[in-house]
Write a structure and sequence with these properties.
Helix content is about 30%, strand content about 25%. Helix 1 packs across helix 2, helix 1 packs across helix 6 and helix 3 crosses helix 5. It has seven helices and 16 strands. Strand 3 and strand 4 form a beta hairpin. The chain is α+β, with helices and mostly antiparallel strands. The termini are far apart.
């Protein structure tokens, strides 16, 4: 195993197999991955902070087998922050917290290309600080259809005085978020609310939207996955790489940009590569910052 040592965040970190090509069709090595996460860290770390990380590791690259790892690896360095969370069976599990650059680099060195986190921070495991609508296109639907649904969602939620944010999933769809940051909100409330909204859109746009998960209902439609609003579920973190043929990113968009992209009819332009992500974040700042700062309460339906 080839190793190099780097001083990052005041600690000495061993980095291995930097030349390994983890996106073989694109020529994107582990060194490139670590450089991406180093540069995107100022924008990404606030959204990872104090959230139980689920690692999605691709040790042989995106075209090979991967595995999820919810427990923080026992071989972790002593400086990696951790937390204990309670599982449904009463057992405690030690999880990694990515609160600093050196931990983010350590995670990247494990070939955890994708970083998935819950809608809660570890200090308040039953209080979601956001609600999410996961828009997933079925067969014969695409990301432009998702964009249309996202804009409808934005309009509906705006009529309820709720501010929303949107990001690409980095895969086929879009994620629409509603920041809450309220100590009173429960998953039962966000799940009921999101399901009701999804069913309203299903009734009003039956040719475009379905709130039902079964594949037979999703052809030519956008599935609004409201069930992600659950304490056991995770979402890919904003700015995370995705394990596709190309290193695409789950990236925030302004609503104006999404409107313009939808009007152009060029769905491919909605997807964001790692180079675009860095350039746009460094120019525009964190378009998802409101997810941390905006406080809202769900209205009664």
């Amino acid at each position: 195993m080839n190793r190099k040592f780097a001083e990052i965040g005041g600690v000495r970190l061993a980095l291995s197999n930097l030349e390994k090509n983890l996106y073989p069709s694109y020529g994107f090595t582990k060194a490139h991955i670590l450089e991406y996460y180093r540069r995107i860290a100022p924008f990404m770390l606030p959204h990872l902070k104090d959230r139980a990380l689920t690692l999605k590791r691709y040790p042989e690259g995106v075209d090979k087998e991967y595995f999820f790892e919810k427990r923080c690896p026992s071989h972790r360095p002593s400086w990696v922050p951790t937390a204990e969370i309670l599982l449904d069976d009463g057992e405690q599990m030690t999880v990694c917290l990515v609160n600093d650059l050196n931990t983010l680099m350590w995670i990247g060195n494990l070939a955890s290309l994708e970083l998935h986190v819950p809608l809660v921070r570890v200090r308040s495991p039953e209080t979601p600080d956001s609600m999410v609508f996961d828009l997933d296109p079925g067969d014969e639907a695409d990301i432009l259809d998702c964009a249309g649904v996202a804009l409808i969602l934005r309009h509906l939620l705006s009529s309820m005085n709720l501010t929303t944010y949107v990001k690409t999933s980095g895969m086929k769809g879009l994620h629409v978020y509603v920041p809450l940051n309220s100590e009173e909100t429960t998953f039962e409330e966000t799940r009921k609310f999101s399901k009701a909204v999804a069913e309203v859109l299903q009734r009003n746009y039956p040719g475009l939207v379905t709130a039902r998960m079964a594949k037979e209902y999703r052809k030519k439609k956008v599935f609004i996955n409201w069930s992600q609003n659950d304490s056991s579920k995770t979402m890919v973190c904003v700015y995370s790489l995705r394990a596709r043929e190309m290193p695409m990113v789950s990236f925030p968009l302004s609503w104006e940009a999404l409107e313009n992209l939808t009007a152009s009819g060029e769905g491919g332009n909605i997807h964001v590569t790692h180079t675009e992500a860095l350039a746009r974040a460094e120019k525009e700042g964190d378009l998802f910052q409101g997810m941390i700062t905006v406080k809202q309460e769900l209205p009664y339906l």
